[in-house]
Amino acid sequence: MAVMEQVVLSSGRRMPVLGMGTATYPVPPDEIMTSAVIDAIELGYRHFDTASVYGSERAVGQAIVTALERGLIRSRDELFVTTKLWCTDRVVPALQESLRTLGLEYIDLCLIHYPVRLKGDKQMVFTSEDMIPLDMPTVWEAMEKCQSLGLAKSIGVSNFTCRKLADLLSHAKVPPAVNQVEINPIWQQRKLRDFCSEKGIHVTAYSLLGAIGVFWGSNNVLECEEVKRIAQSMGKSRAQVCLRWGVEQGGSIVVKSFNKERLKENMEIFDWHLKEEDKERLSLVPQKRLILVHPFISPNGLYKSHAEFWDGDV
């Protein structure tokens, strides 16, 4: 079993550097997701990333129960589970509902999924017409309440820019422990990572491989010529090169796979390093954001362009 590196968050909680993601669309049957999570636990994964809108919380919870029954883990405390508040949710009731679905007494990390507010039902597919103004101070105060009540051991955000983080920090009593964002060799987010480092906010990278297989994904990351060249020269897979690069940026990573062999391959990144010249060449790769959140953008909506939504970072 691979030795899993950990980071210490500003909340004092330890988080495994590598997490298994569960975001996919369409949502597979629970038994497929549950089986994959059990495989991951058996391989040594201890960090699992879910969200209410993913439809994966129940399957993750079932996998934890089964892992305990089989003796794959001795207690729930061995695991680090992240879930996310969807844009239609009221904070405390939504987290309580997630805990019931997961079958857990607490969540290790609860994130605000996007810095937006949506009306209507909870679903991954929506339009800009569903957007309404977000009262961030009130939402964050409720997140802080979740932590004070012990429902979440740590709280944080996802898809926040430097400007949105600065606004949040101006009124937060408890600063966000984590900002989970798209990071990969073709969208490295150096400005955002530097800002978060300065403010003591840990950065978790998603879509390190480009989110292949879902409607918002792309094969541009794994088809990057530098990634392919490094993989060939080192005898590693292109996915391993991207994941190792992500770890060497000083953050944590979340990667999705339901295939046991790929899950195993994704863990085999902790006993080797990229060469300095390869990291330098990767730093020069042309940059392009993959996750453009088209549904949030409308000429008549709250955000009229991608540049406006991402505060100029596109």
TrEMBL record:
Keywords noted in UniProt: NADP
Annotated site, Lowers pKa of active site Tyr, chain positions: 84
SUPFAM superfamilies for the chain: NAD(P)-linked oxidoreductase (SSF51430)
Annotated coiled-coil segments of the chain: none
Keyword NADP in record: yes
Residue ranges of domain NADP-dependent oxidoreductase in the record: 18-282
Protein name (record): NADP-dependent oxidoreductase domain-containing protein
Organism: Musa balbisiana (Banana)
